[in-house]
Structures are given as structure tokens and as C-alpha cells.
Write a structure and sequence with these properties.
The longest helix is centred in the N-terminal third of the chain and has 22 residues. This protein has a single domain, classed as TIM Barrel (Alpha-Beta Barrel), CATH 3.20.20.210. Helix 2 packs parallel to helix 5, helix 6 packs across helix 7 and helix 9 runs parallel beside helix 11. The mean pLDDT is 93. By secondary structure, the protein is of the alpha/beta class. The strands form four sheets. It has a seven-stranded parallel sheet. Strands 2-5-6 form a three-stranded antiparallel sheet, with no helix packed on it.
């Protein structure tokens, strides 16, 4: 401890935080939701032109160069932010699954953090027989090993949080091409998410195998700890699909990921509110819900959806506009609830 800051996971009081997170997953008694300081959402900066390609060699170089800076950050700010953990994201935090599938990652400049993901060269035909890119695969696993060797047991290292089946397909093909294919020939499309999901689970297990558990559990980059093995996946492109198409083509693979691990967090947006009834069918899944400024449902309707999800036993992590913070605290049960404001 430095000036009351928990500078590592062996600091006094960390056990109590872990128990609050365990209670979150169990949806046990809570006096209030868990919370943390406002989070600033990343701004979108389109990368025009050819750009500079991000390579696995550059990612590993960045990881090694940033190790001392991470040490200094934890010494200054500690491992906690309110009730949540300040987690180290998987190395370099590029969009790993698109890179592993062979998509090019382009930056505006060699030092820029903003990326454009190029659809897979070869398109649909290449995607049907895709294999993991060897160089990116090796870089991911080596990066996790570097972080585990340096920080394991001292700082919270986040586990696998990546594009889910619908987002992998959208980024490998491009959103427009995906939308056309799922509409024109859904039976043919279904075979591809099956293959992508198998790769997702394979890599997720490899990442977790390289992380030392803490208190018998795993951290996740939104600041969560869970007992056992925890993963998270995104569903942003689901906003493009009708409830029927999503349920037919992608929900089975969301279920497959959830069944392969002890706990799963599904990252969603209120822009995809038409699919919450489907995700509610995944037993025990926690839902990360971002309260989008522009969405097909009002804030009050989103609160009613959240209440129904709580009734069906799902833990919730709500990322809400600051003006909605009080409503969430007052109108939802604190059991299995995290409410974190954001600023844009």
C-alpha cells in the first residue's frame, strides 16, 4: 500500500474486493451496485488511404517496451478503480481475432493507436477454409507469457476478450458483404461461424492456459474478476440483423462459447436491443450493456429490458451515460449489478 492505494494484488483489502465480485456472479445480497470512476469511450478516427500495417513483430516490440511503464502506472494509481480492477489488457490490445484470421490491420501512422481492419483477402472463398495466422498466433501467446512472467500474481491481467462470431464474420467480409450473404443464403453462411467459433474457443483456452489464476479465478478487461475461467466476446455487428436471422445463424455459436468456459461476459449495445431476448437464453451469461446515445429503444425501455434480464438470473454490467447513473441505481436490483458511467 502507498498512501492508501492498493499497489498490488497482495495488498490488504483485495480479498474483500474479490468476495464482492464473487457475490456479483452469484447474484447474492448487495447493498448497492459495484461501480468505478467514469470511463472515457474511445473516439473513432477513420484511417484513410493505404495506412501503415501493424505487424505481430511491432506488437511484441510494443509489449516489451511498455512493461516498465505498466509497473510505474500501478505504483502511481494502484490496481483498483472503485470496486473494479485496473486490468492489463491482452498484449497491445489490437483486434486479435481479425488478425488471427488474416485481416490486415492498418494505422494512420506507425505510432497511431487508431486502426482500420481490412476485410480478408480472398473474401468469402478464403474465409471458408481459414486457418490461424501463424505469426499472429505466436505473437499473442508469447505476449501473454511475457505479461504472466512479469506481472502474474501481482497485477490483474485480463483474459480473452475478443470479437465474437458475428463480429468476426463482419470484419472478415466487411459489414455490407456479410449482410448480403446472411440474407441471400443463410444456410451456406451458417457453416462459417461454426468454424470461426471453434477457432475462438481454441485460442481462448490457449490464452487462459498461459495466465496464472488469482484466488482461483480470472480477470477481464472491464475490471471484473470471476471464479474459474472467464472470457468475453463482442456482438457489435448484431445491430445489422433481424432477431430471426441472429437467432438462427449466430446464437448457437454464442451458446457454444459460453458452454466452453466457466463464465462468459457478452459485450452488447442498446443499438442491438432486439437481441436481448435471445442472449437471455444463454444460462448464467453476464451481459455488458452500453447505453448508446442513439438507439432503437429509449432509456426507460432499456431499463425495463435490464430488469427482465435480472429476473432471468443474468448479472449485468451497465455502461451508462452519466445522466442515467441515478436511474440505474434506483430502478434496478443491486444484486449482480455493476453500473459505470461513461463520458464521450
Amino acid at each position: 500500500m502507498i498512501d492508501g492505494i492498493a499497489t498490488s494484488l497482495d495488498a490488504p483489502g483485495i480479498e474483500g474486493v474479490i468476495e464482492r465480485h464473487r457475490t456479483f456472479w452469484q447474484r447474492g445480497h448487495a447493498e448497492r451496485p459495484l461501480t468505478a470512476s467514469p470511463r472515457r469511450l474511445a473516439e473513432e478516427h477513420p484511417v484513410a488511404g493505404e495506412g501503415h500495417e501493424l505487424t505481430p513483430v511491432a506488437v511484441l516490440r510494443g509489449i516489451r517496451a511498455g512493461l516498465d511503464e505498466l509497473e510505474q502506472s500501478y505504483a502511481r494509481h494502484g490496481v483498483l478503480d472503485g470496486d473494479l480492477f485496473r486490468c492489463i489488457a491482452p498484449p497491445g490490445a489490437p483486434p486479435w481475432m481479425p488478425a488471427l484470421l488474416g485481416c490486415r490491420l492498418l494505422r494512420a501512422s506507425p505510432s497511431s493507436r487508431h486502426l482500420r481492419i481490412e476485410p480478408l483477402a480472398g473474401g468469402w472463398e478464403a474465409l471458408q477454409k481459414v486457418e490461424l495466422d501463424v505469426a499472429w498466433h505466436e505473437a499473442l501467446l508469447e505476449g501473454m507469457e511475457l505479461l504472466a512472467a512479469r506481472f502474474g500474481g501481482r497485477y490483474p491481467i485480463a483474459a480473452w476478450h475478443e470479437r465474437g462470431p458475428v463480429d468476426m464474420l463482419a470484419q472478415a467480409l466487411g459489414e455490407g458483404e456479410m449482410a448480403l450473404r446472411v440474407t441471400d443464403d443463410p444456410a451456406e453462411v451458417r457453416r462459417v461461424p461454426e468454424r470461426l467459433t471453434g477457432l475462438w474457443v481454441e485460442v481462448g483456452r490457449e490464452v487462459l492456459d498461459r495466465l496464472p489464476p488469482f484466488a482461483g479465478g480470472t480477470f477481464q478487461r472491464y475490471g471484473l474478476w470471476a471464479p474459474g475461467r472467464l472470457v468475453a466476446f463482442t456482438t457489435d455487428a448484431s445491430a445489422l440483423l433481424s432477431p430471426g436471422l441472429y437467432r438462427e445463424l449466430f446464437l448457437p455459436f454464442d451458446r457454444q462459447i459460453a458452454a466452453a468456459f466457466d463464465h462468459v461476459l457478452i459485450h452488447t449495445h442498446s443499438a442491438s436491443a432486439q437481441h436481448y431476448a435471445a442472449w437471455a437464453e444463454i444460462p448464467g451469461a453476464a451481459l455488458h450493456i452500453t447505453d448508446d446515445p442513439v438507439a432503437p429503444v429509449s432509456w426507460q425501455e432499456l431499463l425495463r429490458i435490464c430488469a427482465r434480464l435480472q429476473e432471468t438470473g443474468h448479472p449485468l454490467l451497465l455502461q451508462v451515460q452519466e445522466k442515467h447513473m441515478q436511474d440505474a441505481w434506483e430502478q434496478l436490483s443491486p444484486r449482480g449489478l455493476i453500473v459505470r458511467p461513461y463520458v464521450s
